[in-house]
UniProtKB/TrEMBL annotation, chain A:
<protein>
    <submittedName>
        <fullName>Anti-anti-sigma factor</fullName>
    </submittedName>
</protein>
<dbReference type="GO" id="GO:0043856">
    <property type="term" value="F:anti-sigma factor antagonist activity"/>
</dbReference>
<dbReference type="InterPro" id="IPR002645">
    <property type="entry name" value="STAS_dom"/>
</dbReference>
<dbReference type="InterPro" id="IPR036513">
    <property type="entry name" value="STAS_dom_sf"/>
</dbReference>
<dbReference type="Pfam" id="PF01740">
    <property type="entry name" value="STAS"/>
</dbReference>
<feature type="domain" description="STAS">
    <location>
        <begin position="16"/>
        <end position="116"/>
    </location>
</feature>
From TrEMBL, chain B:
<dbReference type="InterPro" id="IPR001294">
    <property type="entry name" value="Phytochrome"/>
</dbReference>
<dbReference type="InterPro" id="IPR052016">
    <property type="entry name" value="Bact_Sigma-Reg"/>
</dbReference>
<dbReference type="GO" id="GO:0009881">
    <property type="term" value="F:photoreceptor activity"/>
</dbReference>
<dbReference type="InterPro" id="IPR001932">
    <property type="entry name" value="PPM-type_phosphatase-like_dom"/>
</dbReference>
<dbReference type="InterPro" id="IPR013654">
    <property type="entry name" value="PAS_2"/>
</dbReference>
<protein>
    <submittedName>
        <fullName>PAS fold-containing protein</fullName>
    </submittedName>
</protein>
<keyword id="KW-0157">Chromophore</keyword>
<dbReference type="Pfam" id="PF07228">
    <property type="entry name" value="SpoIIE"/>
</dbReference>
<dbReference type="GO" id="GO:0006355">
    <property type="term" value="P:regulation of DNA-templated transcription"/>
</dbReference>
Amino acid sequence: MQFAVDRVAVHGRPGLRVRGELDIATVAQLASSVAAELAASPRTLVVDLTETTFLDSSGARQLARTAKDAAAAGTALQVVCPRENAPVRLVIDLLELQRLVPVVESASLSGGEVGS
Amino acid sequence: MTALPTTPTGHPPSPAPDPLRRLVDDEVLARCADEPIAVPGAVQPHGALLAVTERDLAVVVASANAADVLGTTPATLADLLTPAELDRLGEALAGDLVEAGPMRVAPGGAELDLVLSRSGGLLVTEWEPVAGAGQAGAAWHRRLPTVLQRLSAPTTLEGLTAVLAREVRALTGFDRVMVYRFDAEWNGEVVAEDRRADLEPFLGLHYPAGDIPAQARALYATNWMRLIPDATYTPVPLEPPLVPGTGRPLDLSGAMLRSVSPVHLEYLANMGVTASMSVSLIDRGRLWGLISCHGYSGAHRPSYADRTAAEFLGRTASLLLHTVVGAAERDGMVAVAQREAELVAAIGRTPRTPAAALVDGDRTVLDLLPAAGAAVRLDGRLHLLGATPPAERVAAVVPAVLRAGGVTDRLTLALPGFDDVADDASGVLAVEVGGRRGDFLAWFRPETPREVSWGGDPRTSKVTDGRLSPRRSFARWTETVRGTARPWREHEVTAARALAAHLGEAVLARAGEDDRLAAALQRTLLLEELPKVPGVVLGARYRPSEADVVGGDWYDLVPLPSGRLAVVLGDAAGHGLTAASVTAQLRHALRAALLRDEGPAAALAELNRLVAALLPGEMATAVVVQLDPASGELALASAGHLPAVHAGDGAARLVTDGRGPALGLLDDAGYPQATLRLESGDRLLLYSDGLVERRDRPLPDGLEAVRAVVAGAVGTPQEVVDAVVDALDPAGTDDVTVVGLARV
């Protein structure tokens, strides 16, 4: 799958859908997309990894940076990664990324359902 | 304007909105452009024309007023000239006619200036009475050296054209003298003016290209001077109208008495002009502009000598144009080149961070050339300076402009879909930076709604009865031109491209240097040989990434004061020099923390605090085990790292307890610690994600594969390590590090 970061609306909130392999070669695209979104200081931002097929440490590091940047911008970040996407979800779980940012099964209005 | 026939000509070449959108169709325009201005078949009445054969001076064509002007109807020039004058004529014909100058003759008693030229194989003689001509007098001509000095003194175009207008008016006595400059689309602008004090100023007014049709411009580029002493004149026909023998009308393009288009006379009348003269300004063969002279109070005819002097001033100014325009241009070029050099020097001082050199320095990329905003995209990071569209629009606009050639001064008119950025980016100059795909430099210029003051509404030329009629109103008419920015100059584009090329080289050079440094640094992270620890057998394998960049893996063995052994395997996120440098710091910090001998969990918590404080934005994972070789007691703590494999008794399991968050994720984190026993014959395997990371194999499957291979492996820890690497067949895009340990 060709890597792409698409702007999407999730329940009317701004979101970025990350498709393909998020790794050292593509991570800059996510970084610039996130920077563009956070520039507007939205109240919430969803990063959807449902269709992300691969996540390496550089990609995970960018997710961590994104979480910190969002916090600094006053934006509530939510990462969507269902358990069915095991290759990506396992990386997130190993790093315990959910201690920094809510990782949920699917985008929800409440922002609840924080992953384990 | 003087001598500016009014018929509109072809369409401007630019894709800009044509402010002069014509109310005429192409066919009429084409016919108009064919109007025979060179062969009008008539002359103006302030002189007589005789076209004669050069061999015997027999009259072939004569203007109908010849008898009035000359006092006789000659059959040959011998009827008009004395033998001495005929001799002088013969000498003139033998030489260069252009240098001959007028002959002062008096065939019927009245003095005439006789001017010679050639056309269609005939000698054209024009006879202009001296009486009735205005004379600037000898005083002006004595001042000529001073005038020339004044003309050549100014270093600016404004200075040169102002002197020119003033001196031509002093010389010729017209009510108004303007210097008129053409733009790239042949619209004209009055750039200098000298006028009678009571006249309304025309300075700064624009005139549409259509006021001077193409064929008139072509004529003006070769013929320096035109004169209409009386704009209400009645043309005097040539007889016969066609030259006998050729059947064609006489070409008068080089004749001073040439009759002009009736449309042009109507145009002059509409402007209230009663007498006019114009001198071409020609810069290196191209018509640059005109000196345009207006009389408003009846007929006015400067003497032939004064006209020649005015033409001389025009020719002299034409030669100077190039140097003054060039001087102004050179000043701009020197300034841009200087700033380019400063930026290149700044990059050279901080080659590791070229973006910072361009964005944060005293001189930024925005200072390179006159622009309101700039964008720098390097290593995939976008930096904006000054007034630019928002980041995500810059990311869309710049690649589009690059595909379209990289330079536009009318973005919204040239490319669809960018109307929202017209305010900040009607002008875009973009250049790619090599070395990294998608990196660029870009400059933005805002839309400059230009107020253009036209001398009359340029759209009022109309077709009536299949003929164009000239504009009737010349009241000042202002128009706003939208969607365009100040054009990018050639030297500005050149400087931008040069800077980008330099930057591309710097980035490439840096990448190569980084690789060498990182590889050297990485070697220091690896152990020359595994230390000999009593009671422990170790195996290790490090395989660097096959890509040119170095990863962030490290491993370490630290004998502790208590006699125990700490084994570390870690992985800093990212590749290249940054990762290698981060790795080096992590390794030494963790070593120091471990030597406190407070256990793996405490050491990781300490390391995490250090990463959060000193390496913000970085992330790493690590697993630390601490083995008591005597008892086999083993403590393990992991910071986000892949689970270790513990094998014994023909089975293997992933160690999933003793886990905490990756290093750098949280400012402060506590780490749990797992405790297990490494029995004699058991093995423990630690590894980096390079071992299991393959695009075609999901991570859970990779972990299971490691577990399975370790479970089935026999031999020393080194043999197990080698077996695992062989079986897993890692992709090679990342470092692979595997460490195995067992008790003796």
